[in-house]
Specification:
The chain has 238 residues and is mainly beta. The strands form 2 sheets. Strands 1, 6, 7, 9, 10, 11 and 12 form a 7-stranded antiparallel beta sheet that branches. Strands 2, 3, 4, 5 and 8 form a 5-stranded antiparallel beta sheet that branches.
């Protein structure tokens, strides 16, 4: 179990049921946008589909062979306007280790060839996916999905026997909140997983989703992109 994490504070939490939209991808999970008590004004939130995180051993240039964890995902936009997606995918283990999505072209391409050898989905890294906005989809047509791969290279090194973990996906929404002390939080999707086994095997089937997806407001101090806050949550004088 996770216990208490002093490094992550939640101001509000809403459990989100898994739902389908458009035509489902094979073996994927689907999470729809949902309201949170801290939402203010009109907020855009993307639909998110993903496959359970996986593991593969890859020779990383300059680092040698590593067990790399990664997650395939797709986003769709059912709002009225195109939406720029600046993803930040953070993995937090029950061993209290934090792992950030890394963009390593050689690793990305090796995973892409494993998962999508015909380049059907046109997978993006967390950098290339920001170059163009996510186009608008309509309910009566197939979703205009944009695909991405999140990569974590040091989970096996720092927490080889982790029994459970969470993945936080920021950037899916332009929802922000500010508290009385001026602390700013972003609307973020949190996914929970179990990792069965003792960590001695490189076996992706050991990773099992808990069927938990929550929209939370999470400390935005770690955001690496300079996003403009909406007027409703800007500190006074900003």
């Amino acid at each position: 179990m996770f216990g208490r994490f002093v490094i992550v504070a939640f101001l509000a939490v809403l459990v989100v049921p898994v739902a389908s939209f458009g035509q489902r991808l094979e073996n994927s999970r689907s999470v729809e946008p949902a309201e949170n008590v801290q939402d203010r004004g009109e907020i855009t939130t993307l639909h998110f589909e993903f496959k359970d995180p996986r593991m593969v051993e890859i020779d990383i240039p300059g680092r040698g062979k590593r067990v790399v964890w990664y997650m395939l995902y797709w986003v769709s936009n059912y709002s009225k306007e195109p939406f720029f997606f600046y993803p930040e995918l953070t993995l937090l283990t029950n061993r209290k280790t934090i792992h950030q999505d890394e963009v390593i072209p050689e690793v990305f391409e090796k995973i892409r060839r494993i998962e999508d050898p015909t380049d059907r989905f046109k997978f993006h890294s967390s950098v290339s996916i920001t170059k163009k906005p996510i186009p608008v989809s309509t309910p009566e047509a197939l979703p205009r999905r944009v695909a991405g791969i999140a990569i974590w290279t040091d989970v096996h090194e720092k927490a080889p026997n982790t029994a459970s973990f969470r993945v936080f996906v920021s950037g899916l929404s332009n929802g922000w909140s500010i508290d009385d002390e001026g602390g700013i939080s972003r609307k973020t999707l949190m996914l929970e997983f179990d990792r069965r086994g003792d960590g001695s095997q490189i076996d992706s089937t050991e990773i099992v989703w808990r069927q938990v997806a929550k929209w939370v407001y999470r400390d935005a101090s770690s955001a690496e992109v300079d996003l403009q806050l909406p007027p409703s949550v800007r500190p006074a004088g900003k």
